[in-house]
Amino acid sequence: MMKNRRGRHERGAPHADDAVAIAVRGLVVRRGPREVLHGIDLVVPTGQVVGLLGPSGGGKSTLMRSIVGVQVTHGGEVLVLGRPAGSPELRREVGYTTQSPSVYDDLSVQDNVAYIARLVLPRGADVDAEVARVLDLVDLTSHARDHARNLSGGQRGRASLACSLVGSPRLLVLDEPTVGLDPVLRRSLWDLFHRLAADGTTLLVSSHVMDEAARCDRLVLVRDGGILADSTYADLLRDTGATDAEQAFLALIDRVDGAAPAPDGAIAHPGDPGDPGPAPTPSGGGDGIRQETS
Ligand SMILES: Nc1ncnc2c1ncn2[C@@H]1O[C@H](COP(=O)(O)OP(=O)(O)OP(=O)(O)O)[C@@H](O)[C@H]1O
């Protein structure tokens, strides 16, 4: 059994490639009558904060749902920590927050978290200590006894985030966790994300606020069901000649739409001639994708 960077014994998942937390190949998803992901290839390295950025309706949530295994998929492969997305073995390894905070209004904040902790933690674990730990991480200790219905929007979001931090999952998939937060809270959440990453957790964080790009170790720009770029913020600015993420995003769109030429050394886009394609995926995954809900 291996130990991770936190010194914990890791639970069961194969480790064909510890450097890769998520490997997506050729992912196709249809929702209703439309195909909304058109053959996505994506590799997310372990221990990084990877931002999934792009305009509303581009497919960020659908991609995240596919990664956590709650999305019916129609082609391709999604491996998470070396296993097919949605595998039962991943339930304690992957934390997920949806865009709408998932908390029980009629329970206190601490009881919401304790409920999840009793489901997630091994028998005999110190639930109270874990509740205190995660509430401290999201700065909600002073609201521990408040009913969730009495929280502000930002506090509800952090209560939901606290639930997904229970048990220190190795992968956190967070759908717009900073939406509606004031700048101070946004900064403190991004600081938390980087502390977790420094401790070995991988984070996939979506946002349609382009100025959050600078806070990510890696950026994946999603538009119209495809990946427009997969880069670092610095490389994105260098390769587009832009001064901020929004400008860079628009420059990439113009380039893809044929309105602007790519400068030398431009970012390789998936599917471009010369694009080396995704990094090798870890072996040990299944031959299909678990399909749980529509
Ligand atoms: N339940 C659904 N049924 C049918 N189509 C859907 C459903 N949910 C989303 N879609 C469609 O799938 C596409 C991708 O949506 P998705 O929610 O993944 O985008 P997004 O980038 O996360 O957007 P946002 O930033 O607004 O959350 C959109 O065209 C959307 O209309």
Description:
The chain is of the alpha/beta class and about 290 residues long. The protein has a domain at about 45-70 and about 85-255: Rossmann fold, CATH 3.40.50. The protein has 7 helices and 10 strands. The protein has helices at about 60-70, 110-120, 125-135, 155-165, 185-200, 235-240, 245-255; strands at about 20-30, 35-45, 50-55, 75-80, 85, 95, 170-175, 200-205, 220-225, 225-230. It has a 6-stranded mixed sheet, with helices on both faces. Helix 2 (about 110-120) packs across helix 3 and helix 6 packs across helix 7. The model is unreliable at about 1-15 and about 265-294 (pLDDT under 50). Bound molecules: adenosine-5'-triphosphate (ATP). Adenosine-5'-triphosphate (ATP) binds next to helix 1. Adenosine-5'-triphosphate binds near residues 32, 36, 56, 61 and 208. It comes from Arsenicicoccus cauae.
Q: What's the number of extended β-strand segments? A: 10
Strand content: 15-25%
Shape: globular
User: Could you tell me which ligands this complex binds, including any ions or cofactors?
Assistant: adenosine-5'-triphosphate
Radius of gyration: 19 Å
How does the helix and strand content classify structurally? alpha/beta
InterPro entries: AAA+_ATPase, ABC_transporter-like_ATP-bd, P-loop_NTPase
Protein name: ATP-binding cassette domain-containing protein
GO molecular function: ATP binding; ATP hydrolysis activity
Organism: Arsenicicoccus cauae
